[in-house]
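User:
Note these tokens:
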Amino acid sequence: MGTEQLRSEELRSEYLRSEHLRSEQIRSEELRSEELGSEHLRSEHLRREHLRSEYLRSEQLRSEQLRSEQLRSEYLRSDHLRSEHLRSEQIRSEELRSEHLRSEHLRSEQLRSEHLRSENQISLAKMSI
């Protein structure tokens, strides 16, 4: 009976050792699974941070582009207003010049007319003498 008991103890010991190894393997797989889960979460977090960063960068670029377009539009509008103002001043200057020339022409015609009248009066006065 001693050998049967010894054999039974060996089998029991082998069974306990195999259960212990199986338990260790399960625990090891659980830890690996937790690590993978943690790694997945970390990877997901990094991916989301990257996407957020890309979104913020694209929003900043879009904002800068809009601002650039606004500045360009303001510049073009002010340039247009300035050229309209210059054109208006040029037209006004031409109108004043034309008015001045017309006035000078009328004055010249008036002086010529007065001169002719004066010559006619002198001629009439000479004839009546």
